[in-house]
Amino acid sequence: MYTETVRPAPERASDRAYRVLRDEILDGLLPAGTVLLEVEQSARLGVSRTPLRAAVARLVADGLVAGRSGRGFSVTEMSVDSINDLYELREALEERAATLAARGADRSAFRALRERFLAAPALLEAGEHGIHEYYALIDEFDAAIDDAIGNSFLVGALDTVRTHLVRIRRVARGNPVRLRAAAAEHLLILDAIIDGDAALAAHATHVHLHLSRASVLAMLGANEPAS
Amino acid sequence: MYTETVRPAPERASDRAYRVLRDEILDGLLPAGTVLLEVEQSARLGVSRTPLRAAVARLVADGLVAGRSGRGFSVTEMSVDSINDLYELREALEERAATLAARGADRSAFRALRERFLAAPALLEAGEHGIHEYYALIDEFDAAIDDAIGNSFLVGALDTVRTHLVRIRRVARGNPVRLRAAAAEHLLILDAIIDGDAALAAHATHVHLHLSRASVLAMLGANEPAS
DNA sequence: GAATGCGCTTGTGTATACAGAGACCGTGAG
DNA sequence: CTCACGGTCTCTGTATACACAAGCGCATTC
């Protein structure tokens, strides 16, 4: 049969509303503290209140918005404390993920990624478009990790972390020095996974996350010293 | 003012539906594979379809039910593979949590818990009621850990794990030998936290989880050898 | 007798109408 | 001038009505 492999994706209105709101929050179009009124947002997105409520409920489950005491929902804040908390969880999850990936059998995907990361420094010279490409490469790295560990619970927890990480990355964006260093750190993690050195993979991940956190906090302190 | 400390809790219909369905799934009244039809469940729980949909959406976010390809939602299965996956995540989270708790400043709560755990063996002689009390004690232990680490992201991930763990515990229930051993393991973790020995707390947690997983898998293999 | 096509039934997705609760603002008193 | 109280107004929570899509069964035909 020539039928498509998967369902044509029903594309519900609630899915559209969820995706649009999520992207707008992650892109910073809806800054932290923005209140989301049902009637207002449903009119703006061209959907009814019912699917919009479902979308907001999913955002609440993601931790991107929170119900306020009385009226409405608001986009959650990303304080310095919560960034540290997020990195604490991220360390626990990604160190374990790196360990499991290094123990995994199939390393071909990581070998292919290694070649791409070798070209990352040149990519970061190419301006905004190159930086976008670099982040896409990071996403592929994450996807390869997910594929290697094959643990839906761990992948789900990692996905939550990465969602919030997107918001944090906005402040670190446009720091080519840091991104070049991060590419080198990813290469070390990749080498450890390819060599099957689980301990090194975990330690290299820890180092990478430590440096990443320090960079983010430094950028944050430089941008908003008074807060 | 003599006003109550927190809001009187509006107690929405969707909250009731969520709580009832969640408890029924965790208690096994709604076994894995049960299909949830909106009209059917809304009539049974005495709420309309709208709040029921919200409740089901939350259950989907919890991973307790999953949308099926065509029609309806069904309670998720707990396979041996998913149990192993869950314990993998649980190890990563709880070892980190134990480490952070041991580094924490306030250990009075853990000292009080230590006394209670010393009395746990006697509790486990008291039949079904004692076992229930013991699980309540475990919950207080978990709450003390949450309080000590004070990390909403980590606590949230732990909460997800514990939700699924409740379903798994059903098979291990009624194994006093294992529960007595588990109490001793908790005592060791408590001692490590009280002594501020983060490394020992993490290692003791690892050992505890290893033994717990082995016990669960053994019980599962004994109960359903043919599956 | 088997296979295929059509129609009915059923269940989800969405929109809207209605009720209740909380907040904001204005006014009045101290 | 400030604080408290009350009214109004808006926003959420819930129920219901409607449309569409998918699945199942029956009938008809080969």
Summarize it.
Two copies of one chain form a homodimer. By secondary structure, chain A is mostly helical.
What features would you describe in this structure?
- Two copies of one chain form a homodimer.
- Chain A is mainly α.
- The first copy, chain A, has two domains: 13-75, Arc Repressor Mutant, subunit A, CATH 1.10.10.10; 80-223, Four Helix Bundle (Hemerythrin (Met), subunit A) (Up-down Bundle).
- Chain A contains ten helices and three strands, in the order αβααββααααααα.
- The first copy, chain A, has helices spanning 13-27, 38-45, 49-62, 80-103, 108-118, 120-123, 127-149, 152-172, 176-195, 198-223; strands at residues 35-36, 65-67, 73-75.
- In chain A, strands 1-3-2 form a three-stranded antiparallel sheet.
- In chain A, α5 packs antiparallel against α7 (127-149).
- In chain A, 31% of the residues are buried.
- The interface between A and B is medium-sized, with 29 and 29 residues.
- Chain A binds a DNA duplex (30 and 30 nucleotides) through residues 10, 12-14, 37-39, 47-51, 53-54, 69-72.
Which characteristics define this entry?
homodimer, 227 residues, Arc Repressor Mutant, subunit A, three-stranded antiparallel beta sheet, 10 helices, globular, disordered N terminus, DNA-binding
Largest interface: A-B, 29 and 29 residues
Question: What is the tally of helical segments of chain A?
Answer: 10
The CATH superfamily of the largest domain in chain A appears as GntR ligand-binding domain-like
CATH T-level topology of the largest domain in chain A: Four Helix Bundle (Hemerythrin (Met), subunit A)
Strand content of chain A: under 5%
Structural class of chain A, please?
A: mainly alpha
Number of domains of chain A: 2
Oligomer: homodimer
Say how many strands of chain A there are: 3
Rg from alpha-carbon coordinates of chain A? 20 Å
Give the CATH level 1 class of the largest domain in chain A.
Answer: Mainly Alpha
- How far apart lie the N and C ends of chain A? 62 Å
Describe the main β-sheet of chain A briefly: 3 strands, antiparallel
Arithmetic mean pLDDT of chain A? 90
Shape of chain A, please?
globular
Helix/strand order of chain A = HEHHEEHHHHHHH
